[in-house]
Each structure stands twice: as C-alpha cells, then as structure tokens.
C-alpha cells in the first residue's frame, strides 16, 4: 500500500513465537566443531548479566542453563535462517528492499519509527532517519519508563544502582509486583550475595503490596517478609500513602505501617525497588511520586535510595541516546528538523493509529506486540520472526550480542555494556540497514561495501578528521 | 588540500609569537611550514589585520555522560524553550542552553572557535556511556578525566596499607580500561562517606568504615599521578565545595599536596571566607597569593555568570546541601556502583542576590589576581557556574576594565564592599587570552600537537576580527578550521567535521588485575572483561589518540 493513507484499513499485526519449537538439538553435547563462549553478556532484560555460557556449532548457538528463562530462550538461534528481505511476503533482493523502504519513507507524510529495540548505534541511526523524514520515535516498552520519567521531570529523584544494592543495602523494600517477573535473576545476582558493607551481613526483603514469585521465595528463602496484602489486590497508591503518613508520625493506631516506618528509619541503607511496568493501576506515576517523596523523607536522616527498574531490549539505551541527541526523552518527533517532545501524543500506540508509514524495529527478539495501523509497515526484525499479516516490507536484521557487537544499557541506567558478536549468519545490524536507507534517500549509489554501518552509527556525517 | 591564511597576526604563545604578521599554511589536517614560491594552495584566505590563534581548548566542561543526560531530562522546560534545527552541512538539530544536546554542544563550541573540550568527571562505571556521547559530539576533540578517590576498591587499598605501588597499578589499570586522559578526585572520600550517611567530611576528618582521611586519599592519588608520569596533574575538586569559610580548607589542600603537582578546579567555589554580617565574603586574595607562590599548582576558575543553569556534579554530599536552593524546585541524586555518585540541582544565579553577586566577583578577582596565565584556565565549570556559551562575555570582563566596573555597579549593592574587584586595574591582553585558552591547556593536558601553530600541529585554527568589543569578537570568529577543514565562516557552520578522543595509557603490573577481577566478580557483579572499553569502541572504530606518559619518582 504505497503511501497508503487513503484506505485507512486498520491492520492487526502480531507475531508467532517459533523459538519454543526449535527443538532440543543442542541438548546432546556434540563432539567436533563445538565452541564454548564463557561469560557472554546478555542484552535482553536489562540486568546485564555477563556470565552466560553459550555453546556454538555449525547449526547455531544455544545457551547453557542460566537460571533465566529469557536468556535460555533468546540465545538459542539457528544458522538455518533466511537472510532474504520480503516485499508483501515475496522474497526480494536487499538492494530492492532498501530502495522500497526509502520510497515508502519518502512518500510518508506522517511517518513513525517504533519498536526501536536496537543497540545504541541502531537507535542513533534511527534518530538520524527520524530527523531526516520528520518521524516520531518511541520504544516498544517505553510505558514503564515514562511512569518514572514523569516524576523525574517534575520532581527529581534519589536513586541507586545494582552494585550499591548488592553491597550496601540492609533493607530492601519491594513495592508492588515482584520485579523478577521482568528481571528474572534480580534476586539471585543482586540481593542473595552477602552485602560487603552491612555489619553482620544480614539484610531483609520486605514486599509491600505484592507477592514474591515462587522462584523468589526459593532464592531468598527466610529473608522475605510480605506486608500490606490484607487479602485481595493491594491499592498501591493508598499503601504508599499510609507508609508516608507513618513516617511522618501521622499513622492511625495499630497500623502495621508504623513498624515498617520504624525499620526504614533504622536501616543504614534502604533500597526501594519497583518495576513500574508491572503496576496495574490507573495512575501509576502517582505511586512513583509517592515513592520518591517517601525515599526523600527517609534519606533526610539515614540513607535510602530508589531503584526504579525498567529496560528490556535496550529501552534505557534508546532513551539515553534520544536524550543526548535531541535533549529530550523518547516520544520525540522532528518538525522541519527541530525536535519536539510530547509524552502523550507521541506514544507509539497513539502514533501508529495515524501514521501512514511505520518503521518497526525489533532487533532483540523474534517477537512483536500486537498493534494496529492503517499505514504501511516496514519491519526490521530477526529472521525467526513469523509475523501476520506480512508487512509491506520485511528486512531481516541481526541481534546485538549475537550477530554483531552492540552497546546496551542496564536497567539502572548508569552502566552501558558492549555485547560482542557470537555468530555470522549474514545478517546486517539495524544501524547498517538504516544507513543504507539514508543513503538511498540521499540518492547515493547503493554500494553496500562502501556503507559501513558503524560509520552510520556515528551519524556525525563528515569524514573523520585526521587525528 | 593546501590552504594559505595570508597576512594574519599570529597569537601563538607556545612558539613565542604575540601578534607578529605571518602567513600560515595548512596541509591535510596539519600545519606546515611555508612550502615555498612554487606552491599552489587550493584555497587562500586573506586575513590581513585579523587575529589568528590555534583552536581554543576547554579543559573542564561537563559535556557528556550520565549526569549530563539526567540534567537534560530534568531541565525539560529549558529544552522546550530552546530547540534548534540542524544545519545543511549535516550537523543535527537539538535543544538546550545549559545542557545542550550532543550536536548542539559541538556546534556552539566550534562557532566560538573552540576545537576541543574535555569532560572532567567520568565515572569508571559510566565511562562507556560518556564515550558513546562524546563520539556523538561533532567538530571538537574530547576526552574524559576518570573520577577516583571514592571508589571502594581504592579506599580499601589505602585502608589496608597495600602500598603506593599497588595504588599506582590500580590507577593505571583503571585509566586504561576506561580510555581516560587524566585523573580527577571529587570530594576525596566524601562521596563514599555520604553512602555511610556522613553529611560532611573535612580534609583531616577520618571517614566512616575505612578510617581514611580526605588528605590521605588526595596525597596518595597525587603521588600516583606523578609517579605514573601522567601529563595532567591530579585534577582536584576539593572538600567543602560551596561552604562559607572553605578558603581555609582550600589553603590546607594546597599544603597537603606538599610540592606534588596539582590542578585545583573551579576554585571560585572553594574561595569563600566568613567576614561581614552575612558571614560570607571573598577569600580570593588569600588563595591567589598562595597559588602565585606555588609553581606546582594550576587552577581553573569556574566563573559564575548570571542566569538560569543547572549544576551537575559527582559530589553528592555538596549537592545535597545545595538542593534546598534548587530553581526550579527539583533535583536528583544517585549513588553509583561502589564508584562515586551524582547530584543534579538546577540553579539560577541572580545579580540581585548578595551571595551570587559575590560569587561572580570572586571568580573575576581570582582571574585578575593570579599572575601567571600559564597556570590559570578559563572555565565556568560548564554548566555549574554558567553555560560555556558565556565565555565571550567573560573574556570581555577580563579584557575591558570599564565594562567590568559598569557591571560591578549593577550587582547587589553590598557585594562590592566585600571584594577587591573594583580596585583591580588589570586587563587581560590578547596574548594572555591565547595562553589561557590555547597554549596552556594543551600543555597541561600533554597534547603536544594542539594549542599552537607550529608545523606539525593539528590544523585547528581560529581567525577573529580585532574588534574593540571583545565579546563580539570572541562570539563570532570569521573562520574556524578543524583539522584543516573550514567548518565555520562568519559564525555560521559551513561543513561537518569530527574530532578525536585523547587518552593516556601508563603501564601497570598485571598482578593487580587479579585483585581487581576478584573485586568485580564479588562486588560489582560483572566479569572484568565487560568493564574494559576496547579501542574499537572509541569513535566507531577510529580508536583513541594516545599520548605518552613518563614515569617519575618522587624525590
């Protein structure tokens, strides 16, 4: 549907997960051309685990059991994949796909770049393209981030990072659902080890308004206490409000929050952890604001810091890159080259309704969320993705940390990690593909050899000065 | 490509030229000698009567990394108000004044004739982020100073008397792993102490847990930097930043160095005395006197200029004291990775505020009372004292006494009485400005091919019209060349260029790596190999520019 704004037929996109039926062929050790990659960095959930073991042979790669269902599933990749691009389902040469992508994007009057699940170079290339064609940019998983950012931008925050949690924290307060649902090895890697700076090595983990998952109970055993679940679902806004009232000495008699308030005040270094993406209430940013105020109040006399977790598929890296390149977080567009940020209007779910062309980027996993759009869709995703219906254009890309090296940010937003390449399946990076699209928009000759994706990631454009 | 700049007045203090008329030749990114009568330049620029200097170098400007990006997010209103389109030459659009986005940062610097700026507070744990950001800043050279002195590993080495050699190996290993150019210490031990809930820590106060004083952290690091032979002395952000009466601490800190080279940064924020009804007065005269008689010291000022900005610092302890004064009323703080921290507090300096007016005056006093322009550097501690775009205004204040007195008359009426500024007649010369912003920064960072105009130097050149209004002159150069390419003409971007990243790499005994690896496994939760930043990661495979270190022994 070239240009396709007239028709306005909304199409419902979705994916079929094929990774789970890829068989158990790696379970039997093979002798011969097997290579073992120890201490491989995992780019998926945002915890940045650097200790995954990967076996490689001619048929592909497979992880040794890591204790993380995401790593165990997403590191399993076969070399037997198609590297063909597809136009409306039919295989086309890559050059033709690039030309068609450029044509669709050039014709678009309201283009959108979404998904944005790519390494930092891929995100920077997408931002360059967005500026060039006047597209808005947003990450598939940004909802969780914006629940936190809304508070950061109007109020600020006091936060900490994973290594501080591991070594300094004597009281962990988990607010809402167990973050391990999104960050599987959180407790094993960052709370189970004995804290270096806690006098007797002891720490407690208190769940407020949420229940630990069975795996969490198993991991942390007797250290866990559960609070604020007086039967039924917890109203987190109210619970946080009650705890703040208790901290201010205004709790009602007999409120169990009094005891928790006393413990927070008595702790040497309390860390309040939440995964805002898991909050299932109408105004999740009110919970976050309550938590930030609570942390500030405790931190006035003893030490207390927050650990707002969000960040699979380099969500944090996408936001960091967008912030340094444009000065604004995600959900930013460009009007005649001038950036404009609008956290409501430029939410990708809103934008895809009106966008006449969408560049969907999903480099990390062969999955996409369900979405509806009446516009043409150009999809950059791993070849394992089975998408229905077929988009206008499908261009297979490699996964950072598997097919090519790439930088990803950890969920605590400070640490950036360089995930290396494991296998060569002939799949280009997002930065390379977008670089070729940009060159096609420029009308430059399509010379894949001359267009090194890394140079595009730079996007500074000029030749390197002779340093 | 051969370019001739004909007939300009060369201000090139590193080579003893103070306005002599001479032609300047640039070939393929380098300055070259006169190629002789047969040469046919590809471009000739008649710069007769113009002032020709090397590209300016900012030795202390917070341009990249986690705290800068957090500041951008916190300063949303300012970014909404100041949004820019890209230039046809390919420099992208962006936003912001106090925390400009990457392309905007590069554009604003090069438009003023600056060809290098250095990020002075790169945390090891955030170094990869800082490098990613720096490589997205077009036009200018960059590099990062590694923050040490609050990291648990170093404090543990000191506390367990591991010895200077072990400290040196660790410092060298960290500099190498993080692709850094220098070592900075921020509130030595204080950021770490704050994690144990200490809210202040004086120079000789024993810190919690490790039982180590800031003085010992400072001296151990200063010695490591000296013995490893780093070109840049230890870059020191001392204790008690912003606290009235901190002049005493600052003078003690000079003593603590006991002859080892030291660079004291943003000293304006460390020069406060307690005279007068308000218990806040200038300590500039005392500090200037001490610096003038200590040749092993260099300083940069951290000048305050009036207006809205944001303060971003690794000094969480100091930032927590400032937080109640935040304008707008929001701030953020982070404890980071058993490494350091960061605090971001928006701030509006007002000339009608006694304290802010005096801060402004103290900075200028220091500039004017310090004798040796080779040991004084032009900084606003961007963005903490003011955005770097205020440099032309600051240069005018230094070069034009009448203008300075007129401005002095506009500030809070009680402030002038508590400084000596009104009585100082000194005006900086063009030669002194060239020293302070070109020759001296290159020398103190060990960048032998930057900051001067001799053959072999990088062809980073700025050409100004010699206007009586020095602000107008330095705001809008006629021509700016980066690595030989003309990138700015009459204040407007005309072409794109990229700079490079400068690093040093002192050697170390491999034995230290085992101990560091254990620390990473047990404490940081990350195999050491994922921490190390490879050359291929710098500027998309271009790699860093390496500068030599020369090992020394303390006499």
TrEMBL record, chain B:
**InterPro entries the record matches:** Amidohydro_3 (IPR013108), Formylmethanofuran_DH_asu (IPR012027), Metal-dep_hydrolase_composite (IPR011059), Metal_Hydrolase (IPR032466), Metallo-dep_Hydrolases_sf (IPR050378)
Amidohydrolase domain mapped to chain residues:
44-494
Question: What sections of the protein cross the membrane?
Answer: none
Q: Which domain of life is it from?
A: Bacteria
Matching Pfam families, A to Z? Amidohydro_3
Q: What is this protein called?
A: Formylmethanofuran dehydrogenase subunit A
Q: Which organism is it from?
A: Azospirillum endophyticum
């Amino acid at each position: 549907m070239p240009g396709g704004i007239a028709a306005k037929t909304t199409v419902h996109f979705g994916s079929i997960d094929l990774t789970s039926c890829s068989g158990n062929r790696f379970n039997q050790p093979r002798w011969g051309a097997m290579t073992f990659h120890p201490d491989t960095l995992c780019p998926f959930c945002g915890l940045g685990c650097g200790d995954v073991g990967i076996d490689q042979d001619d048929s592909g790669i497979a992880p040794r059991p890591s204790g993380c269902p995401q790593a165990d599933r997403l590191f399993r990749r076969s070399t037997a994949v198609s590297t063909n691009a597809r136009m409306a389902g039919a295989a086309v040469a890559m050059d033709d796909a690039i030309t068609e992508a450029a044509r669709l994007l050039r014709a678009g009057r309201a283009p959108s770049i979404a998904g944005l699940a790519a390494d930092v170079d891929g995100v920077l290339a997408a931002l360059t393209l967005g500026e060039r064609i006047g597209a808005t940019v947003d990450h598939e998983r940004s909802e969780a981030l914006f629940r936190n950012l809304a508070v950061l931008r109007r109020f600020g925050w006091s936060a900490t990072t994973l290594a501080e949690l591991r070594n300094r924290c004597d009281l962990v307060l988990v607010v809402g659902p167990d973050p391990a649902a999104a960050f599987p090895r959180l407790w094993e890697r960052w709370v189970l080890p004995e804290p270096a700076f806690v006098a007797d090595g002891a720490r407690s983990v208190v769940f407020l308004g949420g229940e630990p998952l069975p795996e969490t109970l198993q991991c942390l055993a007797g250290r866990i206490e559960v609070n604020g679940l007086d039967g039924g679902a917890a109203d987190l806004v109210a619970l946080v409000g009650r705890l703040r009232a208790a901290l201010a000495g205004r709790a009602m008699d007999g409120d169990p929050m009094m005891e928790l308030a006393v413990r927070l005040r008595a702790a040497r270094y309390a860390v309040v952890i939440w995964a805002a993406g898991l909050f299932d209430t109408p105004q999740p940013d009110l919970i976050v604001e309550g938590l930030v105020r609570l942390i500030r109040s405790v931190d006035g006399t003893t030490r207390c810091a927050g650990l707002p977790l969000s960040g699979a598929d380099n969500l944090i890296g996408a936001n960091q890159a967008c912030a340094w390149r444009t000065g604004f977080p995600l959900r930013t567009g460009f009007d005649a080259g001038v950036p404009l940020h609008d956290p409501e209007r430029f939410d990708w779910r809103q934008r895809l309704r009106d966008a006449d062309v969408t560049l969907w980027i999903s480099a990390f996993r062969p999955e996409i969320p369900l979405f509806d759009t009446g516009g043409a869709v150009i999809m950059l995703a791993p070849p394992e993705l089975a998408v229905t219906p077929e988009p206008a254009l499908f261009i297979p890309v490699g996964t950072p940390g598997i097919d090519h090296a790439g930088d990803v940010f950890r969920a605590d937003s400070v640490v950036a990690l360089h995930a290396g390449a494991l296998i060569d399946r002939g799949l280009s990076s997002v930065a390379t593909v977008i670089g070729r699209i940009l060159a096609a928009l420029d009308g430059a000759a399509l010379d894949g050899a001359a267009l090194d994706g890394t140079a595009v990631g730079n996007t500074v454009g000029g030749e390197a000065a002779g340093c | 490509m051969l370019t001739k700049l004909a007939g300009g007045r060369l201000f090139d203090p590193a080579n003893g030229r103070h306005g002599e008329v001479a032609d300047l030749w640039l070939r393929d990114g380098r300055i070259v000698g006169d190629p002789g009568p047969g040469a046919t330049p590809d471009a000739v620029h008649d710069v007769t009567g113009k002032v020709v200097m090397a590209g300016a170098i900012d030795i202390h400007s917070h341009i990249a990394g986690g705290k800068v990006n957090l500041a951008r997010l916190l300063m949303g209103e300012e970014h909404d108000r100041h949004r820019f389109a890209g230039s046809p030459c390919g420099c992208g659009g962006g936003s912001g004044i106090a925390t400009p986005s990457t392309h905007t940062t590069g554009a604003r610097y090069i438009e003023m004739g600056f060809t290098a700026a250095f990020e002075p507070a790169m945390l090891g744990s955030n170094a990869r982020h800082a490098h990613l950001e720096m490589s997205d800043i077009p036009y200018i050279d960059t590099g990062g100073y590694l923050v040490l002195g609050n990291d648990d590993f170093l404090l543990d080495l000191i506390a367990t008397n591991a010895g200077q050699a072990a400290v040196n190996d660790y410092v060298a290993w960290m500099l190498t792993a993080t692709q850094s150019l220098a070592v900075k210490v921020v509130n030595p031990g204080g950021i770490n102490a704050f994690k144990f809930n200490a809210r202040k820590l004086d120079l000789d106060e024993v810190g919690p847990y490790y039982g180590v004083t800031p003085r010992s952290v400072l001296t151990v690091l200063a010695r490591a930097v000296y013995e490893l032979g780093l070109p840049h002395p230890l870059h020191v952000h001392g204790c008690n930043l912003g606290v009235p009466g901190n002049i005493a601490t600052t003078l003690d800190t000079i003593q603590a160095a006991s002859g080892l080279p030291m660079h004291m940064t943003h000293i304006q924020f460390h020069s406060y005395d307690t005279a007068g009804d308000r218990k806040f007065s200038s300590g500039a005269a005392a500090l200037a006197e001490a610096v003038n008689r200590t040749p092993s010291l260099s300083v940069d000022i951290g000048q305050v200029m009036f207006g809205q900005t944001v303060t971003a610092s690794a000094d969480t302890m100091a930032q927590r004291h400032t937080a109640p004064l935040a304008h707008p009323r929001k701030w953020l703080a982070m404890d980071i990775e058993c490494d350091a921290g960061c605090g971001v507090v928006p701030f509006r300096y007002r000339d009608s505020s006694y304290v802010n007016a005096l801060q402004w005056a103290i900075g200028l006093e220091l500039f004017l009372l310090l004798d040796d322009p080779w040991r004084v550097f032009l900084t606003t501690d961007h963005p903490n004292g003011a955005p770097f775009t205020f440099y032309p205004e600051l240069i005018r204040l230094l070069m034009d006494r009448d203008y300075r007195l007129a401005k002095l008359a506009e500030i809070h009426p009680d402030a002038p009485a508590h400084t000596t500024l009104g009585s100082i007649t000194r005006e900086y010369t063009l030669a002194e400005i060239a020293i302070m912003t070109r020759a001296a920064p290159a020398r103190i960072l060990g960048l032998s091919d930057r900051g001067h105009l001799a053959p072999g130097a990088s062809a980073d050149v700025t050409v100004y019209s010699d206007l009586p209004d020095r602000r107008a002159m330095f705001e809008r150069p006629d021509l700016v060349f980066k690595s030989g390419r003309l990138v700015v003409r009459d204040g407007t971007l005309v072409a794109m260029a990229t700079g490079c990243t400068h690093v040093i790499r002192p050697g170390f005994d491999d034995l230290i790596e085992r101990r560091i690896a254990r620390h990473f496994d047990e404490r940081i939760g990350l195999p050491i190999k994922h921490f190390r930043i490879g050359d291929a990661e710098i500027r998309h495979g271009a790699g860093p520019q390496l500068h030599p270190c020369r090992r020394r022994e303390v006499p």
